[in-house]
Amino acid sequence: MKLISCDWGTSRFRVNLMNSGDLEVVSSFSSDSGIKSVNAAWQQQSKLNRTDFFRYFLQEQLQVLAERSGQELSGLPVFISGMASSSIGMLELPYAKLPFSITGENLTYHKLSATMTYPHETYILSGLASNDDVMRGEETQVIGLQNTIRSKKALVILPGTHSKYIRIEEGKIRAFSTFMTGELFATTAKFTILSHSVKRTSIENKALLDAFRAGVDCLKSEGYLSALFKVRTRTLLHDEDDESNYAFLSGIHLGEELRHLANLDKDTEIIICTNPSLAYLYRLALQALHIQLNDYVVPGELSSLVTAYGHLALAQQLKVDENHPSS
Predict the structure, then answer these.
(1) pLDDT in tens, 167-200
(2) pLDDT digits over 217-269, tens only?
(3) How many CA atoms lie within 13 A of 166 on its CB side?
(4) Start-end ranges of CATH 3.30.420.300 in the chain?
(5) 181-297 belongs to which CATH class?
(6) Three-state SS for 147?
(7) What confidence tens digit (pLDDT) does each residue in 72-124 have?
């Protein structure tokens, strides 16, 4: 069976044509047509209701996917995670509650039937809520990681604009926390006085990695708010270049995100799911903080496909393959 996996965030749209037999990505593409911009476009017209407008947009994207793959996609099921189930999305759905099985058996979803103009059964997946936090999309990533979680106690780290720390015990999500690391890093780098002292770069060579670690060390000794201004004084007093300061600022933010793990139970398995370069910085920051944990980094290729693997697992659970035997 083939399946169309869609990860629809606030600012990005990503879609993969997946083959469930060998977990192969047949074709994929992404764009900046996130939920926010599509919702704005819907509000500027009056002919279609919200759901039909989003379905029309999806059909256009699936035509692009069909052209790129050279395959007929009519009749294939579509699974959508992320902000499609939010108040600005395709169809607002309530959050599922904790505890939440990492198999996804208690996931909240809504099935849209196929139509003549949109020949795809579509499964819109909702997010997850605790008493004081929410997520949309990350729960599907955890479902995609279920076979990677080997310990009875695990902490899955999903870095991003809003990084998620998801605590799992006995195969169930028991709690999670959100850290606004990526957003605050971008804000301080672009919209504060520090913008005159930093220049975006890839933190890869030894000098920049040393600057990154120095940022973690500064955070550890000075605290977050004081450490931030040290970016400025590195320019004024020590003539540090802007790229070095960018790495230093990154170290401050990752150090701030990670330092609470000093009190984590040592028998908890840490699973870091992100691209290899960022995963390396996470491990370097943990070393600088002198936090020794049982950590595992999800391989780069797998880390980029965990949402799609989550959709494949859910399709199997919902017996979608039995409903589409010829796909």
Answers:
(1) 999 999 999 999 999 999 999 999 999 999 999 9
(2) 999 999 999 999 999 999 999 999 999 999 999 999 999 999 999 999 989 99
(3) 34
(4) 2-148+305-323
(5) alpha beta
(6) coil
(7) 999 999 999 999 999 999 999 999 999 999 999 999 999 999 999 999 999 99
Q: How many CB atoms lie within 10 A of CB 36?
A: 15
Specify the amino acid at residue 206. K
Q: What is the pTM of this model?
A: 0.93
Is the pLDDT reported for residue 322 higher than 70?
no
Amino acid at 29: F
pLDDT of residue 48: 95
Q: Which residue has the tokens 């939440």?
A: 100
Tell me which residue of 221, 295, 230, 228 sits closest to 259, measured CA to CA. 221
Q: How many CA within 13 A on the CB side of residue 123?
A: 23
CATH code linked to domain 2-148+305-323? 3.30.420.300
Burial of 221 from C-beta contacts in 10 A (0-12 / 13-18 / 19+): exposed
Residues of the chain with CATH 3.30.420.310: 181-297
Residue corresponding to tokens 């606030």: 10
